[in-house]
Amino acid sequence: MGVQQEFFDLSPQDQDPGSLVRVGSLGAEQMSPAQEKFNALARKIEELREAIEKRGSIYDSILSISAKQLGGLPPKLGTAFESIALSIDKAASGFKLGARQRALVGDLILLSLDQAFMRAPASAQGRELYDRWSETSYLQEIALQEDAEQEVAKEIYQRVFGKELDPEILKAGPEAIHAAFEAAAQAQAASQGSSQGPSHGQRKARGKKESATQARQKAAQELEKKTIRSLYLSLAKALHPDAEPDPGAKLEKESLMKEVISAYEGGDLHSLLKLEAQWLNRETSRLQELSEDKLALYLSALKAQVTQLKAEYQGLAYAPRYQGAQAFLCDDLEQAKRRVKKEAAGMKRMLKMLDTLRLEFLKQQAKADFLSLVDICLEEF
């Protein structure tokens, strides 16, 4: 499952100028670097959104295909592994086993039950068998596994975001943890571009300059908070259809206003910026209103959005809704279909093998033959 390089490359030579969102009616040769960057970022956002939608559509198809072809095979395998464990336990009760022999039999029973519980909910009979052969009970083992998974999540969260994950989120389960990771990634993307503090020597040498920079950054951050609302208000004022006497232009503004309202309600800065750019393209007399300072602020917001969309694109496979098909996810639907078909065939073969093995354990009369079969299964499992 590879990430397409084109979504991470803003090289000018890779751009199609005809598809860019223009900030004005100026020719390409008259555009400032900031305006060109705006166009490149706007196009990148569109590409990423299309890529996320395309990948999501493919993953949805793979999830549907795997559910249809695999169907109830995993639970059936779980039941088969549990039946193996029960058969081994029943067969073992007919022999007098030494401590080492009993340990080997116990290893195979617990291994079979682990395979069963991975594929299907543990039955009362399976849990009771687990408790008899394991040093820790089934419930204790589940608690230990959950603790281990939470520790891993905490460690990754701390390493990536530099802060601790809320214990209440950990208790809430995998979906809440995934949501917390997504929220933290978005917050990190939004704050991208804020400078880190300099060393003591740098601070001493650049104190006044740094103070001025921080002041500008603070002003920019405050302005960014108001960007969506201010954009909405300015566009609503400019595009309000009631202020347009021309019937054709009035219809056009009514359509644009619907888009503006939808973008505002969705908190979609990029669409608002795009609508403003379209408006400015028509209102050439107001092009000068999009100053370099304003463009710089927009560029910062768009860069953060690109970072967020990249993270969403890369992390789509780990979304909880695809958990059941994670092993088959890729961007090639036909390849995924082949993987699912191969997996289904393998599961069916395993079901037959497990049923044969269950019967073999039940018909063992000699302890040596029984222990030999245990050794073979330990090697295979």
Give the structure's gist in a few sentences.
This protein has 381 residues and is mainly alpha-helical. It contains 14 helices and no strands. Helix content is 72%, strand content 0%.
Number of strands: 0
Distance between the termini: 28 Å
Low-confidence stretches: 1-26, 193-213, 215-225, 284-288
Number of contiguous helices: 14
Query: How much β-strand is present in the residues?
Result: under 5%
Shape: elongated
User: Helix and strand string, N-terminal first?
Assistant: HHHHHHHHHHHHHH
Could you tell me the radius of gyration in angstroms? 31 Å
- Which structural class do you get from the secondary structure elements? mainly alpha
Major β-sheet profile: none
> pLDDT average, as an integer?
78
Helix content: over 70%
Protein architecture, described:
The chain has 381 residues and is mainly alpha-helical. The chain is 72% helix and 0% strand. Helix 3 runs antiparallel to helix 4. The N terminus is likely disordered.
